[in-house]
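ARCHIVE RECORD
Type: protein–small molecule complex
Small molecule: adenosine-5'-triphosphate
Source of inputs: curated submission
Record status: active
Notes field left blank by submitter.
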Amino acid sequence: MSAHHTDTLAPATKAGDDDRATEVPKLELIGVGKEFRTKRTTTQALSGITLSISDGEFVAVIGRSGCGKTTLLRTLAGLLSPSEGRILVEGRPLWSGSTVDSSVVSQLGVVFQEANLFPWYSVADNIALPLKLRGDDKRYRHQRAYELAELVGLQGFEKSYPRELSGGMRQRVAIARALSTHPKLLLMDEPFGALDALTRERMNLELQRIALAAHATVVFVTHDITEAVFLGDRVVQLSPRPGRISEIRPITFARPRDMDVQTEPRFGAIVRELRHALDGEG
Ligand SMILES: Nc1ncnc2c1ncn2[C@@H]1O[C@H](COP(=O)(O)OP(=O)(O)OP(=O)(O)O)[C@@H](O)[C@H]1O
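STRUCTURE (tokenized, with ligand):
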């Protein structure tokens, strides 16, 4: 997660501005739009999304239901082609027209609301699956799976099967699997949406720890404003129809944050302001 909290919308270009002037953003979106066309209707799900995310930054995306959060994440994940605009991962275009560059996609890690584990694979084999698919040898896969199981707090469960795990533990496996290839970018769509409130809090703490340890750059979609403010270096708010960025809020609480930060008046004020802004968007 970044030490600096820039809310620059465009890439830094001013020479001599500071170090960021020459730093290639980890992820850059330039005028990204997405239109869904069916025989009956056309939905402009996203419009003019411009955002630059730097190395190690944690960006939380919030917005009302239907404002395009999932569409944005799926577009970043290489699953949905944008109708307009450009997406660059470390300066390399993810899409050329409606064709995705699979070598760029292979540098992304994605976690959805459902862990989507293979029930007949052990925890270690689930974690190492992306490595198997790209042909890494068994010894490396084993070593990396055990290393990641430890990182996500699942040491001792490497040989267990998904059915033997709780929902929170399964999500940890999904996070470990997404990190297995050392992705440049971790994309998460409501990863804790199906968990109970206490487990979700614990997972927020864990995710912060994991992201710091892995120096991960993260785009994290959530409905939950408190979760977004707790986790984010910046909170990006989308407004609906079409989904546009309506606000980018830097969150500067020191890291690592613990749950007590949520009792700080400044934390409560930010959550209230963001909630108020979202309510105003009807
Ligand atoms: N495959 C699709 N075909 C047509 N329209 C779609 C498709 N996927 C999404 N949409 C439309 O695009 C808009 C944005 O949907 P999206 O799922 O991205 O919103 P969201 O913010 O993730 O919502 P939620 O918080 O409820 O999950 C909605 O109006 C939705 O109906």
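CURATOR ANNOTATION: The mean pLDDT is 91.
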